[in-house]
Design a protein that fits this description.
Layout: E1 4-10, E2 19-26, H1 43-55, E3 57-64, H2 66-72, H3 74-88, E4 95-99, E5 111-114, H4 117-120, H5 122-145, H6 151-154, H7 160-169, H8 180-190
């Protein structure tokens, strides 16, 4: 039997914190019809499905830290998070399907990229849900201390509210310094 793992990342476009990735091998008895791309689900639906997926699959999470993002850039950090998630799986899959057009390079692993894979492949959809719920949990925790930025609502993405809060209150230690809005604020301070 072919063992397929789906891999997806989350938080790549966020202005704060780490990037997360999940790798998921679905058990054959799981109801795949329930699983959808995480972006097509609300918070409550994602959390319910994440519990269901975790109970009925082999899964793992990988991440790349804020420092790693700033050192190697967001694309390479995303690939690093994916690689870490894949390496943490308890079973080695025969085939790894990654959302998008870039994948990590791992010796002795067959990896294929699928554009919009989170909408087409249930294993990738499941990975998108696990990664999103895991990262959102961290961001909600950070938001308790930094309420003014509304991270609990925007996950650290560059929404109007978040950008206005940046202008008003400045950057935090969790902001990605090499991302344009943050970099621009830091550049203005140096003038």
């Amino acid at each position: 039997m072919k063992i397929i793992a789906g891999v997806d990342e989350v938080g790549r476009g966020s202005l704060i914190g780490p990037v997360y990735a999940a790798a998921v091998i679905l058990n054959k008895n799981i109801k795949k019809s329930k699983i959808k791309d995480s972006k097509k689900l609300n918070k409550n639906q994602r959390e319910i499905l994440a519990k269901y997926i975790k109970k009925n699959s082999i899964w793992s999470i990988g991440s790349a830290s804020l420092k790693e993002i700033e050192k190697i850039n967001i694309l390479n950090a995303s690939l690093l998070a994916m690689k870490r998630a894949i390496k943490k799986l308890k079973i080695k899959p025969n085939l790894i399907l990654v959302d998008g057009n870039k994948s990590p390079k791992i010796k002795n692993h067959q990896i294929r990229t699928i554009i919009k894979g989170d909408q087409k492949i249930k294993e990738i959809s499941a990975a998108s849900i696990i990664a999103k719920v895991s990262r959102d949990k961290l961001i909600r925790k950070l938001s308790e201390k930094y309420k003014k930025y509304n991270w609990d609502l925007n996950s650290g993405y560059g929404t109007k509210t978040h950008l206005n809060a940046l202008k008003r209150y400045g950057i935090t230690k969790f902001h990605r310094k090499n991302f344009k809005p943050i970099h621009n604020i830091l550049s203005l301070k140096k003038i």
